[in-house]
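Lab notebook: predicted structure, single chain.

Context: the supervisor wants predicted structures on file for every construct in the current expression panel, including those that have not yet been purified. This is the next one on the list. No modifications to the sequence; it matches the entry in the shared construct table.
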Amino acid sequence: MKSKKAAMEMSVGTIVTIVLLMSVLILGIFLVNKIFGSATNAIDLTDQQLEEEINKLFGNDEKFVIYPKTGLVEVEQGELAAIGIGIKNLLEGEAGTSTFSYTTIVADTGTCIENEEQIENWLSVGKTGDKIPIRVGDLYTEKIRFKIPEGNSICLARFRVEVYSEGYPYASKTFDVEIKK
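Prediction complete. Output recorded below exactly as produced.
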């Protein structure tokens, strides 16, 4: 009789231990994912948070940066996504404010079956920016938003953001948009 009672207590203790260990494992995986998982989208960031993240990306001589720093935006069909851009006025020999502009174009259709015009239509807000006044040493941030249509192919396309100062080329960077199911 004592051995049955001891076996029952042992099995209950074992079950409780297994449940606790699984809970800790799941919590650990969740925390590691939150801590080390890099952001792949700027859609949920407020303007203040975006500016802080972009400030972290600027080096001493960086004129233009894209957030996320990986340059990859992952988005599902029918969903809205965004990237953040930061333009810093580092013009030498200039004082006061200079006028900047930018445009976003399709650089490579990649693995997409859609043509360049269809891919360009993914850009919903922020495709271009004109007459942006930036004082020397100051920073301008903006979001470029995408809306991927339902039924779009699952693919990868590359975009280029070209920045101009007073109509002259200033900086340029590319980023990729990966469509997931």
